[in-house]
Design brief:
Radius of gyration: 15 Å
Largest sheet: 6 strands, mixed
CATH class: Alpha Beta
Distance between the termini: 19 Å
Strand content: 15-25%
Bound molecules: ligand AR6
Shape: globular
Order of helices and strands: EEHHEEHEHEHH
Oligomer: single chain
Structural class: alpha/beta
CATH topology: Leucine Aminopeptidase, subunit E, domain 1
Helix content: 25-40%
């Protein structure tokens, strides 16, 4: 049971569940959400999501994965970043923890996350990374599970001077190359 980082497209993950960086209406959006809907089969996933919507920010719900390699999709709505004074940090932690609790409740043992809120929702990448890593590592200490964090722009992050050197070293250490 371990925490690893991979580079690239989360829709290729073969395991129990991938997490969707969703919106509270569970509608097909852009970014990783659009990619997940397309790979799962947009109509099927839409039909599964509609009865579960709306959700609160930080909440998580689960649907089948349909045509994805992953068996399930856990949908969580991360916070829109509005400067950091609107409980964004707590809400982002909630997204990770509630997704992992749901996976545990369903008996799942391998889960992959994208870097929630760090794209269209504007969360600063260094902080989003720190929160993702802390939330996942703390959870799996008590609840053994294989968790993978998919970083779409790993190479960009490794060169990004706004990300502390120690954090970049940690990303390299945890990276599993295919
Ligand atoms: N695999 C892995 N990571 C990806 C992929 C992919 N295929 N595509 C993008 N990313 P975002 P958010 C990365 O914008 O900020 C949608 O419209 C991306 O580089 O997908 O939580 C939803 O419906 C970034 O690092 O999600 C919501 O309305 C990270 O995934 C809203 O966007 C998250 O970026 C959610 O915004």
């Amino acid at each position: 049971m371990a925490f690893t980082i991979r580079e690239g497209d989360i829709t290729r993950f073969e395991g129990d569940a991938i997490v969707n960086a969703a919106n509270t209406q569970l509608k097909m959006g852009g970014g990783v959400c659009g990619a997940i809907f397309r790979a799962a089969g947009a109509d099927q996933l839409r039909q599964a999501c509609d009865p579960l919507a709306p959700i609160s920010t930080g909440e998580a719900v689960i649907t089948p994965g349909f045509s994805l390699a992953a068996k399930h999709v856990i949908h969580t709505a991360g916070p829109v970043y509005e400067g950091g004074h609107r409980q964004e940090e707590k809400l982002l932690r909630d997204s990770y923890i509630h997704s992992l609790e749901l996976a545990k409740d369903k008996g799942l043992s391998s889960v992959a996350f994208p870097l929630i809120s760090s794209g269209i929702y504007g969360y600063p990448v260094a902080e989003a990374l720190q929160i993702a890593i802390e939330s996942i590592e703390t959870f799996i200490e008590d609840n053994p599970m294989d968790v993978t964090l998919y970083l779409f722009s790993m190479d960009t992050y490794l060169k990004d001077q706004s990300i502390p050197e120690s954090l970049r070293a940690y990303l390299k250490e945890k990276l599993v190359r295919r």
